[in-house]
Hints:
CATH class: Alpha Beta
Number of domains: 1
Oligomer: single chain
Helix content: 10-25%
Bound molecules: zinc ion
Structural class: alpha/beta
CATH topology: Metallo-beta-lactamase, Chain A
Shape: globular
Number of strands: 19
CATH superfamily: Ribonuclease Z/Hydroxyacylglutathione hydrolase-like
Mean pLDDT: 92
Strand content: 15-25%
Order of helices and strands: HEEEHEEHHEEHEEEEEEHEHEHEHHEEE
Distance between the termini: 10 Å
CATH architecture: 4-Layer Sandwich
Amino acid sequence: MKTKFPMLSMLFLAALLAANAAAKNSTSDAQAGIVAPEVGKSLPAWSKGELDIHHINTGRGDAVFLLLPDGTSLLSDASGKTVEQAPFSLPTKPDASHPPGTWVARYVQRVLSSRALPERSRRQLDYFMLSHFHGDHMGAIVPDSPLAPNGAYQLSGITEVAEHLHVAKIIDRGWPTYDYPAPIKNPTVDNYRKFLDWQIVRQGLEVERFQPGRNDQIKLLHDAGSYPDFEIRNIYTNGVVWTGKDSGTRSLFPSVRDLAPADYPIENTLSLVFRVSYGKFDYFHGGDLSNNDAETAFDPPAWKNVETPVALAAGAVDAMKANHHGSWDANSIGLLGNLKPRVIVVTSRAEGHPAINAWKHMTSKDVWPGERDIFVTNVAPATAATTYGIEETAKSTQGHVVIRVAAGGASYRVFVLDDDDEEMRVKAVFGPYASN
Ligand SMILES: [Zn+2]
């Protein structure tokens, strides 16, 4: 988080931290028992004090797993089938022998097997956050989706993850009424609500609606006192954005009463947006937030350009997940020019991710100055042909992307992991980057 020190003390502090980090980096790692990551070997387990952000690649949608400094676990989205994959789909990774939700759960279980975690934390997800109600984030339900062994609901995405891990709390944009901007009814959401009802009664699941502005809805649950400079700030959902002051919010969208149903905001534009801060490190996660039809309209109403006010509320960050898989309707100049990320992770799930216009925004130094490294979880041959230059410029074009922030948040590294199997083999290491 950005603390407001006078400029001189900030500079002094920065110099001190940098000198300190340089002197201590290797020796303190060894003292703390941290294994150095090596290309070709499995990623060393998370250690207490580190912040891990795993962009898990199933080829089938978003699943970002965060292991927070005290061992609190948070999965944002669960990947999953979309109702229609063809004709732009990518292969399921590692392979088609399991559905995406199961691959996500197995990946999370491997990260949670770290001996630095207490026994009970190794089988539990403390938080599951659902960015919005689309199949590539929650798992679409189709007629042949298998029934859960308990018979109460069908399995796909998040409901599959819960077959492998106990889920303690779910936070989404709709609980408990699921009615903004209109009642949300489809087989996937109907099944999800049956799943919530069953889990609440039988497993003690807690469910909450994501509340923009707060920095205490998602918190460290195991040892918060040791990490006072860690925070997750809820920035935005459902047209309501944080004002930047205390937990205040303001509405960006007109009231539903004043809109014709055809003009209602679309699902992606309602995505949860949050910022993770650890010391000087900041990470932005905006789900599938996009400007959508504002990108193809001559003079769209201002409220449809939702990315800019959201980015202004979040402020500059070190790293971000690209919005909406790097799609054409997201990652606008107003988003990127305000976030100014050093590291961008594009979680692509189809041909055309990232789109050429979004790629141009991400790579242009006229949008914001300074270096930036871009990592893409999949680049299909069709994408390489149309988003030209991507193979030469992207730091990676295939694999899981892990951001590992050092204890205290002053620096971080990026690991690209082989997604052909479950060994979590390191393909490449980037950094350390200094947090800003
Ligand atoms: Zn999506």
